[in-house]
Description:
By secondary structure, this protein is an all-alpha fold. The chain has two domains: 6-96, Fumarate Reductase Iron-sulfur Protein, Chain B, domain 2, CATH 1.10.1060.10; 102-184, no CATH class. The chain has helices at 6-16, 28-32, 43-51, 55-59, 63-66, 72-76, 83-96, 105-121, 126-141, 144-159, 174-184. Helix 1 (6-16) packs across helix 7 and helix 8 runs antiparallel to helix 9. The two termini are 34 Å apart.
Amino acid sequence: MEKPNQDWKARVEELAHTRLSDCYQCGKCTAGCPRGAFMDMPPTRLMCAAQIGEIKQAAQADSIWRCLSCLTCSARCPKSVNVSGVVDALRQISVETNSTSPKSAKIVGFQKAFLRNVRRNGRTNEVEMATDFEARYFFRRFDVMNVINTGMLGPKMLARGKMHFALGSPVKDKELVKRIFAKCGVEL
């Protein structure tokens, strides 16, 4: 059995702003999680893995990318453990260590496209973001059907006013956006 890596545990606690040892495995986080039944490692198991130092195993779980970030787990915790923050920390570690589950590659790719778009514009530009994501995803997987299916959504979104072709103006204070990304240490 691999020895728990105290440095990784400390990193999770630092990123999540919580103490892993406060969790006493009551299970309320998983009981309230709307996605818990569909996760390979529900919140309680993610917390247990983090507590015993199995950070790499938890960071490779599909669950961290399937989480809705609804904060129900954190709200239900009787010890005020930031369970959602732990999931976010595991996501960050997963990307930093390149240990993302292959099943979650599309989700991670979309989130990276979203962050690149916000970094560039200070807000999202749906057409630019979708083009960035689809181009990168297509060339990684050569998934023609995904491009066709996504393309079929465009007219529907336009008709409902959910997507605009106008590039719009980026935020005025781009330096503020740069500082936010620098402070978060986001590398894309």
